[in-house]
Write a structure and sequence with these properties.
The complex is a heterodimer of chains A (167) and B (100).
Chain A lengths: L2 H22 L3 H21 L3 H26 L12 H22 L17 H8 L4 H23 L4
Chain B lengths: L3 H21 L3 H25 L4 H31 L13
């Protein structure tokens, strides 16, 4: 087994385990901390695939902004009281497990396709700032500009939601 | 070099875990975290396919997914906080009506 494969398997185990931790932990704070581990692992995956810019953006945007936002919201909303009491939809929730298993089986069948076998060409593209910036500002210029509108709309919407006084 | 199918396999497992989280959890915050897991699984697949084809387009798409995820979390958490101020309880099962 090469060093690349060893790193891959370590990262894969950490990623799957932390994702399971997010879903299984009862306390939302624990879930948020597992989410940070998960996002950091994903950043390591990106780094492994020569996507340096994305790895950095992943750490800044997800682990920095989004995870902090989650922790902040949990602190505001006082955790621990939810997910107690009787579960009115327990049968549906139990049904969710076989449904998710079925989804996994379907994806596994799809992955057996020869389309995904083997590695790609040896000449992998390094996703540095220069390369990805050139792509974003030439081929993807229009979607990139639309993104700025999306973020502006989200900003205005959040302010409007937060300002509304609820009696 | 790690085969592309390995990355896509991990991505599939992560997506299923995220979908399971959305289905079984009652806390909207944890549901949002599960959605983030699913988005990240898609990102992983994007980057893996981009690497396979020696193309930068996959990484450009991940950039847009990052932007959408940031906007989604900001708006979603604002809505959750607004609902919490109105109801003092957090459970998605009780939020079956569109009007307050």
């Amino acid at each position: 087994m090469t060093a690349g494969l060893v790193t891959f398997w370590i990262l894969a185990v950490v990623a799957v385990a932390s994702a399971a931790g997010v879903v299984l932990k009862r306390n939302p704070i624990h879930s948020a901390l597992f989410l940070v581990v998960h996002l950091a692992t994903l950043a390591a995956f990106f780094l492994k695939m020569r996507a340096e810019f994305l790895a950095t953006a992943q750490v800044i945007v997800y682990a920095g902004a989004i995870a902090i936002l989650f922790v902040f919201a949990i602190m505001v909303l006082i955790p621990g009281r939810e997910e107690t009491g009787t579960d009115a939809l327990r049968s549906q929730r139990l049904l969710a497990v076989p449904v998710a298993g079925l989804l996994l089986v379907l994806l596994a069948v799809m992955l057996r396709s020869t389309l995904f076998a083997g590695a790609g060409p040896k000449t992998s593209v390094a996703g540095g700032v220069a390369t990805i910036g050139r792509t974003l500002f030439t081929d993807y210029l229009y979607p990139f500009e639309v993104t700025s509108v999306l973020l502006l709309v989200a900003l205005v919407g959040v302010i409007a939601l937060a300002k509304r006084r609820v009696a | 070099m790690v085969p592309t199918s390995y990355y896509v396999g991990v991505s599939a497992v992560l997506f299923v875990i995220g979908a399971l989280g959305v289905l079984v959890r009652r806390n909207p915050l944890v549901i949002f975290m599960s959605i983030e897991i699913m988005l990240n699984a898609a990102n992983l697949a994007f980057v893996a396919f981009g690497e396979r084809h020696g193309s930068i387009d996959g990484q450009a798409l991940v950039f847009f997914v990052l932007c959408v995820a940031a906007a989604e979390v900001a708006v979603g958490l604002a809505i959750i906080v607004a609902i919490f101020r109105l109801r003092r309880r957090l459970s998605v099962d009780e939020l079956s009506l569109m009007r307050g």
